[in-house]
From TrEMBL:
Domain Maltokinase N-terminal cap: 20-107
Region annotation (Disordered) ranges: 129-158, 480-659
The reaction(s) this protein catalyses: D-maltose + ATP = alpha-maltose 1-phosphate + ADP + H(+)
Top-level EC class as recorded in UniProt: transferase
InterPro entries attached to this UniProt entry: Kinase-like_dom_sf (IPR011009), Mak_N_cap (IPR040999)
Subunit-level organization: Monomer.
Family stated for the protein in its record: Belongs to the aminoglycoside phosphotransferase family.
Compositionally biased tracts (Low complexity): 496-514, 521-539
Keyword terms: ATP-binding, Carbohydrate metabolism, Glycogen biosynthesis, Glycogen metabolism, Kinase, Nucleotide-binding, Transferase
Biased composition (Basic and acidic residues): 577-586, 649-659
UniProt-recorded name of the protein: Maltokinase
Species: Barrientosiimonas endolithica
Pathway: Glycan biosynthesis; glycogen biosynthesis
Amino acid sequence: MATIHRATLEPDKVTIVSRWIADRRWYAGTGTPALRQLAAYRFDDPDGEVGLETLLLLDESGASPVLYQVPLSYRGAPLESAPERAFLGEMQHSVLGTRYVYDAAYDPVYATELLRAIVQGGSEAGQVVADSGESRPSTATCKGSGLLGTRPRHGDGTQHDLAVTSARVLTGEQSNTSLIANVTLDGQELQVITKVFRVLHDGRNPDVELQGSLTAAGSTRVPRMLGWLQGGWTDQATGTRHTGDLAMAQQFLPGVQDAWREALRAATDNRDFTREARALGEATADVHAQLAAGQPTADADAERVAGTIAGMRARLEEAIAADPSVAEHRDAVERVFQRLESADWPPLQRVHGDYHLGQVLDAPGLGWVLLDFEGEPLRPLAERAEPDAAVRDVAGMLRSFDYAAGSVQQTDGLDRTAWARDARTAFLEGYAADGGLSEQDPLLRAYELDKALYELVYETRHRPDWVGIPRAAVDRLATAQSTGDDMNTERPQGDSPTTTGARTGSTASSVYLARGGGQGRLAAPLPGRAAAPAAAPAPTTGDERADGSGPAPSTTPRPTCCCAGCTAGRTPPRGAPEQERSDRARAAPARRPRAAAPGRRRDGRPAARLRGHLVGPGARRRGARLPGRDDVRRRRRARRRRPLPLPPDARRDRHPPDR
Ligand SMILES: Nc1ncnc2c1ncn2[C@@H]1O[C@H](COP(=O)(O)OP(=O)(O)O)[C@@H](O)[C@H]1O
Ligand SMILES: O=P(O)(O)O[C@H]1O[C@H](CO)[C@@H](O[C@H]2O[C@H](CO)[C@@H](O)[C@H](O)[C@H]2O)[C@H](O)[C@H]1O
């Protein structure tokens, strides 16, 4: 039971969050936040010392409102282990005195209580007002799923035993916030990653839904899901009740590399990547077969095909708005999309939806393991949850090989056109072992072009330094479409865009060179000499540090106390250092393995073997980080950062009473 006080707060919570949120990696807005609190829920600190409150805040500063989940922890003394960016500021509480407000992701007490709610099927804390003893209903609710795949033990009066021995936050290019914890669960030691969704949507989050169903079906192509937390809240302004996923927990695979890092190293060294790419194609086909078997499918009827084409056309218009020069390709792109009307569509199915090299891990003993089924962040959630052509994912991964080459071109001036071509070919061979999917496939062509257009918009918004990579791809793909060129073909520098170059060998040319110059475009290398990087790589922020997981103190259950402000005898927990996450690709769209029988590949081989998940020792190693969305945003925000003026009535918050 959380004890709340009738108190005044200065500044109030929304103000304190408003001053801090704009610089968060996961904040999607670009201007001054305009936050409105929709609801909140709390967890209990068993020690009764730390206030744990999660605010659901609607940001109405942009064209469409975005709902954020902001867990806060309120402490009576500074949390020494928290990094500066996790500190939101001090709040004067008229009953409890100074409260130190933190991003709760960095508070080990929150990490423990969140995970406990997930695996034990817990709910939000009840609330009681201190002076009257009256109970106060929570404006938001939450409910954990319980540990997936095990029978809840509620019946016999026992719970899954959970002790969190240390927790840390994963940092880097993340759309959400992930906490990595060393836990003992029912006597077994393991590492768990708990992802707190930052942007909330009404409805199931595909990440939870798909990884949950893959785990339940015994797939080893995703880390084992442990459970999730669902929430309910009401928009008081409209009276509408919403439910959505708040967080999910899964087994953390330590010491693994993601495919983006591996591919980037291989591309830099011009090392063959075809074996890995082929295996990645096979893994992708496995997951598509598993999703087709476990989730609803739909016929690609005229209405759905028309809807898909309409979505692609809308994307084209967005890309033109982001870069008006794309308009020169409008007719060519339109022809590619039109061919979809008469194409041979497979049944539609659930797909990954944002598939790229940064979304797959090379797990020892498991092979390629897929992550982050949330779909493209720029697409509405309802659209992402629709059955789609599996070729969307294939196209996404093809683009990602192109990105790896483009990135090497951009940072080192090295032409890796041939490297990307070979990797793409091998990936397709692995995916369609019967050779049944070629780059000429009308669906694949359209989806790849669509993805490149998406990337152009994405990079314009988030990483302008990278925009030359998709821009060059749109040029190339659109032109290849109109001339019937092989899209895998490199084009010697200086040739007209319609000239097809040799398919082998590396030249000073590169298909990754965007036309023209200008900000964000790739510099063309001078013949025989490496190009200066168009954008200096951001300083390396370090790997996910092997020593970065200093243990937090034991957070074993403590006696419940209603005195929320009491700090007596309590040493602030230490630990929770952060991890560095790789700069990831966030990509898109694939093709459904044709008529694969459930559990079988299209060539009739078994789709996936059931294997136990291994958790090996050791820390993950990471290479130098590339300039990412973080860097671009940091620069952008540094330019516009200024203190937010406090509205006169924001100085005091009489409602609601608080701990
Ligand atoms: N189960 C896991 N085991 C190991 N690393 C993981 C796991 N889940 C996520 N990661 C790491 O965290 C990163 C972010 O995860 P992701 O699910 O893509 O988060 P987001 O939705 O915030 O982008 C991944 O790129 C990967 O490096
Ligand atoms: O991972 P997310 O779901 O957030 O995906 C978004 O961000 C990606 C970048 O982090 C972006 O991916 C693009 O860049 C990658 C290299 O960083 C590259 O490998 C991908 O192919 C490319 O699409 C993704 O598109 C976006 O949705």
